[in-house]
Amino acid sequence: MTRAPERIVVVGASLAGLAAAHALREGGFFGSLTLVGDETHAPYDRPPLSKQVLRGLYSADTTLPRHPDLRATFRLGQPATRLDLSERAVELGDGSRLPYDRLLIATGTRARPWPNPEEAALAGVFTLRGRDDAQRLGARLRGRPRRVVLVGGGFIGFEVASTCRDLDIPVTLLVRDAVPLAATLGPRLGGLIGEVARERGVDLRVESEIEQMEAENGRLLAVTLKDGERIETDCLVAAIGTLRNVEWLDGSGLQADAKGLRCDAFCRALLHDGSVAEGVFAAGDVARWPNPHDDDALVAVEHWGNARAQAETAAGNMLAGDASAMRRHDHLPDFWSQQFGLTIKLVGLADSADSFAVMHGSFEERRLVAAFGKDGRTVAAASIDSARWLPAYKAAIRERVPFPPIEDAVDQPHIRVQEP
Amino acid sequence: MDAAAGMGASGRRRGERIPSPYLPVSAALPAAVSHRHRQSESLLMKVVVDLNRCQAYAQCLYAAPGHFALHGREALVYDPSPDDGARGEMERAVHACPVRAITAYPDDTTAGEAA
Ligand SMILES: Cc1cc2nc3c(=O)[nH]c(=O)nc-3n(C[C@H](O)[C@H](O)[C@H](O)COP(=O)(O)OP(=O)(O)OC[C@H]3O[C@@H](n4cnc5c(N)ncnc54)[C@H](O)[C@@H]3O)c2cc1C
Ligand code: SF4
Hints:
- By secondary structure, chain A is an alpha/beta fold.
- Chain A has three domains: 7-110 and 243-325, FAD/NAD(P)-binding domain, CATH 3.50.50.60; 113-240, 3-Layer(bba) Sandwich (FAD/NAD(P)-binding domain); 341-398, 2-Layer Sandwich (Enolase-like, domain 1), CATH 3.30.390.
- Helix content of chain A is 20%, strand content 31%.
- Chain A has helices spanning 15-26, 52-55, 117-120, 131-142, 155-166, 182-199, 304-318, 390-398, and strands spanning 7-11, 32-37, 73-76, 80-84, 89-92, 97-99, 102-105, 109-111, 125-126, 148-151, 171-174, 203-205, 210-216, 219-225, 230-232, 235-238, 242-244, 256-257, 260-262, 268-270, 276-282, 287-291, 297-299, 334-339, 342-348, 355-362, 367-374, 377-384.
- In chain A, helix 1 runs parallel beside helix 7.
- The model of chain A has no long low-confidence stretch (mean pLDDT 96).
- Chain B has one domain (25-107): Alpha-Beta Plaits (2-Layer Sandwich).
- Chain B contains five helices and four strands.
- Chain B has helices spanning 3-7, 23-28, 31-39, 59-63, 87-96, and strands at residues 45-49, 68-71, 75-78, 102-106.
- The longest helix of chain B is centred in the C-terminal third of the chain and has 10 residues, at 87-96.
- Chain B starts with a helix and ends in a 9-residue tail after the last strand.
- Classes of the chains: A alpha/beta, B alpha+beta.
- The interface between A and B is large, with 52 and 51 residues.
């Protein structure tokens, strides 16, 4: 049995870091608790940034609620620069060292920058990950750009496109794949969302990429697409994915690379030789672990719900003392997105599904629940404006019941199994 | 353990202004620490809704109409930083939500902070 920890350090003061801090106190940890964050902001919530904050609804201050008795020390505006596993200490940008008995790594991801640095530096070119990004982009949108060009066919791109349409700003959305959002939702649902976006006035271009940007005095003027078309724009948002914040772990001995920080099923960080790094745990967007809901494939789940749930598993395991008392992180991945007035939700992982069936509602109504199957088993369910049905499917997915699931409780005359 | 329930309304004691799921910790704290927080006149509250859990039951809209709204059939938008005057309404919203998706605490971002 290892000694109970007296000092816990959390690196990354955001959703996962704060959730872990709460869970540690709730789990009875009375010792010193320090959260290190390179942003100057106290932990805040990101999902509203691409939605209501950008649109200017309510307050732009999405600081996450903190329990009044959290008793944590926050070292904000201060990056962790090095991890010394043998000394059990984290080094900060100002040269100070924080010794720990347990360490949680929750450094998340950052927006993938536009690959051409000269173009990325132009006035009018944006990315969106943090509060400061949202403030800059929000200010630009209030200045009413002539046209916003969005690059990237993921959820953030679609949410920003939706917000621009709410503000009555012309939008061109460039998606590299043939169908948007297909990686997460499959081509049928992705296609449906694309259709809705077009109806709401988004100029959606699939299989479309930027060849180059045009500028005058350092300001964006236009983009030229690979097919030669030129589009005039004074505002471009690159929503082309994320990069994991693992550089500070270089040389530490931990298995961390562009795919994330490798963990075991108990949120323990692993060394290069595959053994457990004593006392070091990870949670949230930065972590990659064998996921029981994906046949133990090594995945990172870059969603809000996982960041919180994994932080809680990690916190519990940090206090467990003995490995036999640790809990596996078996949170079923879940996700929501709001765009064009629709709420899209997903539970489970649909990316490797081979079959699909509408269980409630229909494409025509734009209101439905669909189930995803893989090798005859139920692996995921998605809802569009029908979230109340989803909890029932959660259990079916956890148990991997035969596909299609819950056939006797649907509103379809007959269930048609199709490709996703 | 369930994140949203843990941070939501569970474990509330009568007469307590803000739901406090961490009662064992609070109870064990030196009186002065808790006292300081109760005295602090914070102007804002901080609110977050677990939208994985939210099923658009709209109870929060009735409890705190100026701070929650539905845009479309299910898309809940809310004020993450309402002022202190909203505290009563916010508390009602926290308790009204049938799936306990709402967490609200008084804003205390300076507490225990050392940059
Ligand atoms: C615009 C936007 C909209 C989103 N919408 C949704 C949604 O609708 N639904 C959903 O499920 N998910 C959504 N997400 C994803 C969700 O916000 C993330 O999954 C979540 O923020 C992950 O939390 P995290 O704490 O693991 O990482 P992060 O939130 O990325 O936090 C990591 C923190 O660590 C800091 N850090 C990095 N390196 C260091 C270092 N060396 N030293 C100190 N600090 C460091 C970072 O600056 C950051 O503050 C959205 C994300 C964005 C950006
Ligand atoms: S009461 Fe709860 S479930 Fe209903 S809309 Fe509000 S947050 Fe969502």
